[in-house]
Amino acid sequence: MSPTIPDARTLATQILTQVIHHGHSLSDCLDTNSLPDPRDRALVQELCYGVLRWLPKLQALLQPLLKQPLKAKDGDIQVLLLIGLYQQLYLRIPPHAAIAATVNVTRAVQKNWATGLVNAVLRNFQRQRDTLLTRIETDRCAQFAHPAWILTQLQTDWPTQWEAIVHANNEHPPFTLRVNSRCVSRDEYLQQLQNAGLVATPTPYTDVGITLAQPVEVQRLPGFNQGWISVQDGAAQLATSLLDVPTDARVLDACAAPGGKTAHLLERYTIDKLVALDSRPTRVQKLKDTLRRLHLEENTAVFCADATQPETWWDGQPFDRILLDVPCSGSGVIRRHPDIKHLRQPNDLATMVAQQTRLLETLWPLLAIGGKLLYVTCSVFAQENFLQIQRFLTTHADAHEIPLTYPWGHALPSGRQILPGEDYFDGFYYACLFKTQS
Fold this sequence. Notes:
The protein is α/β, with parallel strands linked by helices. It has three domains: 8-145, N-utilizing Substance Protein B Homolog, Chain A, CATH 1.10.940.10; 175-231, Alpha-Beta Plaits (2-Layer Sandwich), CATH 3.30.70; 236-435, Vaccinia Virus protein VP39 (Rossmann fold), CATH 3.40.50.150. The chain has 17 helices and 13 strands. Strand 5, helix 13 and strand 6 (271-278) form a beta-alpha-beta unit. Helix 1 (8-22) packs across helix 5, helix 5 (75-90) packs antiparallel against helix 6 (95-108) and helix 12 (234-243) packs across helix 13 (260-268). It is globular. The termini are far apart.
């Protein structure tokens, strides 16, 4: 007997339960391959991303609708209720149809006892919607759909821009591509998209970026399987030009997976050897898959290794360029990864800063004199960005900052910051360091 294929809401309930109640990332859990209908796959994505995007608001609305909290073992029913509220607030599905389909999931997850509860809660919300929405207007976390600690950090670091950042975080991200210039030019690929009936425009400040008016499944994109294009945000595409790799250089991409920037370096430059690292096997496999699809495996050494332990992967030859795209809070890409709001905790920031410091301290000696290190985060928090770089510069006499004077982003005491939504970009920080004799 073939396995039963779950419907979209059932699969979304299972995925969101793993994220909200078991702490898994959405990118690790979101697998819609079991659904043959692309409309169902799209609905699962909409429900998962939407619920996580508005989770603090949905939770605040749900609380007064429950007479008593659900038991821990019934986390899936709580998730189902959040899905039901999200549909009524943000989707154009008729409320009666959305409620009926959501109630049916209780049977699919073998919790028939919850059928009446889910039906009653969602119908009560339908009746009390305006009253409940008015009641949460004074709840800052609910209104901005962010946890309190992130709001406080944004207000501290960006006192005049924090509300714009929050609103950008709650928007759908653009669908941006990077053209593989080894295969096709941007103009040629724009024509290919037009021929396929897809509306697209060049991405600002990049020479290979294209932003589509509407997201599509990658298999619909001309030449995807042939390696003509990759999905990559415009801000992330800036890294390769900032690194300015000379011909036949030795390059280290120290935190490389899933491989977008690694591939872009190989597409743009003639590199003698590129070493790409990541410490997690599943992510290393994604990196290898990326390079294989783009036909970029030549002159590339991929290691599953800890970058702070070079004795396990380094051959002793210094690098001319180092791309250090460090693990960070992800506070600049919340619109693309809304589970960050739920999964990231206040204490994580200090842990991330310490890890970034270790990476800088360990990899700087591997850079050749006259070489450049590009420090990158997808964060908007000062501790991870310009304060991190300033600390490093004060303790390393051979490190000098190269000013980044560009029409994008904001100049900081060290480095340059793009805020989420500016020029349709994600939030990224860049700082470029040059090494001299001590």
